[in-house]
Structure formats: C-alpha cells, structure tokens
Specification:
By secondary structure, this protein is an alpha/beta fold. It has twelve helices and nine strands. The radius of gyration is 20 Å and the shape is globular.
C-alpha cells in the first residue's frame, strides 16, 4: 500500500468549467448557455436561485477526494469571483484553504483564460515544488490534455475530475486516473431524463458529524479497492485527519479511535481478532 504520509498533492480547479458542466448535467444539455443572461441579470430571482441551488457544487466532496491521495500542499480555484454565481462559493472555498485566482473575461463571448493560467501555474509549481507527487485537475476541457501529459512526463501521478457527459474522452485518457464528479462520495447523481426535480442532493447524513466523517473516509478508501475490504484503523484515522485536521476522538468523548469507530456500528464493522484493528464500511452502507 502506498505511503500516504509521503504523498504530496496539488489541486487545480477550473471552477467555471465545473459549475457550468454540473448545471448542464442537472438541468439538461446547454442549460447554462440558455440561462446565462438571466443569471447575470439577477441570480437572486426566485426561479433562477432555485435552479442554481439545485445544481450547487459540493466543494467539500472534491477537496476530500483529493486529500485521499495524500497531504494537500496547495489548492487553487480559477474563476471570475466577481460573478454572483461564483461569489456564492467564496466563503466555502476559503474555509477549505483554497486560493482563489481572479480571472477577467475578455468579452461576453470569450473564454476567461482559466486553462492558460491554470496550466502555467501548474507547470511552474512542479518545478518550484519538486516533492509534489500528485496533481489533481478538476475540469473537463480537452485543452488540458497537454497539461496532463506534461505532468506525467515530469513524473507526477495525474488525477482528473470532471462531470460525466461534459468531459472530453481525450482528457480522461491523458490522466493516470479519472473520476466523475457524479461518482464522488456524498454526491447524488441526477436521475436520467429529469431536470429540476432531479436536483442532486448530498447523501442524507447523520446528525453526528463524526459518523459522517468516518463514512466518507471509508467510502474514499473503498472506492480505491473494494467497500468490503478490511482496512487498517490507523490508515483510516490518518485519512480522517487529512479530511478534517481538527478531528479528535477524545473531543467527541472517546478514549481511543477504536472506541470511536465501535460507537458507530451502523457505519463501520470492526475486527479485533488480531493485534491490528481492522475496519470496513458496514454491510448495509455498501
């Protein structure tokens, strides 16, 4: 198993791309293009706000997924943050220590240049930070194919994340690993053929934040292998600490991490038959 303690991850989000792509995934092909003018004029109008809320991106799911590969050393999101649609995410992104890179569209019909700026920054970071092991590119544009190829040539493991149906096959092929945003833990896929009624909602979570965190960690590890596979409790705890550095089982009233896990039998199974404590996602959660 890879030594996650020595894996260092950089994350780059083409935020406009992922927001628009998910909006189209939820409301139908080219929905964002059709609604763009109304969104720009008044994103707070009840019907517009409802459609935006239905297609809201779960930033936490993306960051948590990236953290499952190792320690996050930098995370950048590229967009026009003066846009009301993007501005609504600023506090959520800043809370996750994401650097917001401001882009200014050249014209209403022009691209904002995210692909160029993101690519330049990524290559610069790889030379500036030679200990980077993983590069996570959150986008779906085929313009990022040369970047993914360059990162691989420079010895980095490249992970791509994009919206199903809006990602170029060439980009997925250029990455070492590519996963759909739709399939990340905590994301519910919109039902086929539906629009507003199929708005994605985060998986219903327990009122216990510790249980939510434990389940997400187990699902992230399970996605790499098999949900039914037993995992070392210490490795799961390490992942939880990367997902939430403030996590402490003692602060939640438990003497040990094993006791914390055993307090959530509906989330995890525990095997203490050997000297090494093993845990896995509970059978009814798989």
């Amino acid at each position: 198993m890879a030594d996650l303690q020595n894996q260092r991850v950089a994350v780059y989000l083409d935020f406009d791309n992922i927001v628009m792509s998910w909006y189209d995934r939820v409301h139908g092909r080219n929905a964002y293009s059709r609604d763009r003018q109304r969104i720009a004029e008044d994103s707070s109008a009840p019907d517009v706000a409802e459609r935006l809320a239905a297609a809201r991106i779960d930033v936490g799911a993306i960051i948590d997924y990236a953290a499952s590969f190792g320690t996050l050393v930098l995370t950048r999101a590229y967009a026009d943050w003066s846009s009301p649609v993007n501005a609504d995410y600023r506090s959520q992104l800043v809370a996750r220590a994401v650097d917001l890179v401001q882009l200014f569209p050249a014209a209403a019909y022009a691209k904002n240049g995210a692909d160029i700026r993101l690519a330049v920054d990524t290559v610069e970071d790889m030379f500036r930070l030679p200990d980077l092991t993983h590069v996570v590119i959150v986008a779906g544009d085929s313009d990022y194919v040369p970047l993914a190829q360059r990162c691989k040539r420079l010895g980095r493991f490249v992970v791509g994340v994009g919206v199903a149906g809006s990602t170029a096959k060439s980009l997925a092929a250029a990455c070492d690993q590519f996963d759909a945003y739709d399939a990340l833990p905590g994301i519910t896929r919109p039902a086929p053929g539906k629009t507003d009624a199929a708005a994605p909602r985060a998986r219903k979570r327990s009122k216990d934040p510790g249980a939510d965190l434990l389940e997400r960690a187990l699902r992230l590890e399970g996605d790499k292998a098999d949900d039914a596979q037993w995992q070392h409790a210490s490795e799961v705890k390490s992942l939880i600490k990367r997902l939430d550095p403030a996590f402490s089982e003692k602060a939640l009233g438990h003497k040990s991490f094993t006791e914390f896990v055993k307090a959530h039998p509906t989330v995890a199974d525990v095997d203490e038959s050997s000297n090494i404590v093993l845990i896995r996602l509970a059978s009814d959660r798989r």
